[in-house]
Amino acid sequence: MGARFDKPSSRWIIDTDDGRHANAKYLLLATGFAAKRHFPDWMGVDKFKGEIHHSSFWPNAGVDVKGKRVAVVGTGSTGVQLAQETAKTAGSVTVFQRTPNLALPMQQKPLAREEQQSRKPKYPEIYKNRMTTFAGFQYDFLQKNTFDDSPEEREAFYEKMYDNGGFEFWLANYKDLLFDKEANRQAYDFWAKKARARITDPRKRDILAPLEPPHAFGTKRPSLEQNFYEMLDKPENDVVDIKKTPIVEVTETGIKTEDGKLREFDVIALATGFDSVTGGMKNMGLQDVDGVQLNERWKEGTWSYLGMSCSGFP
Fold it and tell me: Is the predicted pLDDT of residue 99 greater than 90, yes or no?
């Protein structure tokens, strides 16, 4: 697969994996934000005799995990969902975590038809107001700074935003949350207190909700969860900190970490995300007018003109 610009004809010459060829005046890359999945290059992946699935190619029929030993690699939004859902029926779930997910309660609940209908007259106002908010939600930051309130007032406000669920604790919080280090730490400490209270195992508690923030709260998108912490707290489930003990190999029966421990599984779920934005383009074999690959041109960093074009790629 590849595409190169032919100077004499001023045309793109495009070759596909299935042997087809095309000549075109224009080559438009509609590859999307997350077109190329990230598949870890662990030694021995092809030897695993159980099931292994990447979250972006999850079977339409689902995966039968009932009573099985499941590994979930990754703690982004998909990893959180996979862990809490598979834990309902799996024999055990082990999450391999690089960075804690500062997840917030989704507070999802069934809506009666009457309740749904009663909200619909408000839709036009919601749609209008969301164009005026920081993040495009129907709520916005409180027009007050964190330390304008007393500790007691601040605690009560945090409780309300946290209990409301969704992203309100993140994006309907004090207006300096994302702009002041001390204000941000106040929010993180409250989040950690709430999350840690839901985890009885002290080792798991320190991995999933450490006292010291892994990054400023909200600078990575928090995921939404229903019972993620309670599920992982169950004695049959586990969490592995792969910053301390990285994965080094996949064997026929499971995953081996740097400390030499082999954990055996029936199913491995890879919630390892994507080589986002530029990943698809860098792996398409695109060449400029001089035959230089795009991935080589972008080796020192991604650049473009207005996000639309690059010199040498007409």
Answer: yes
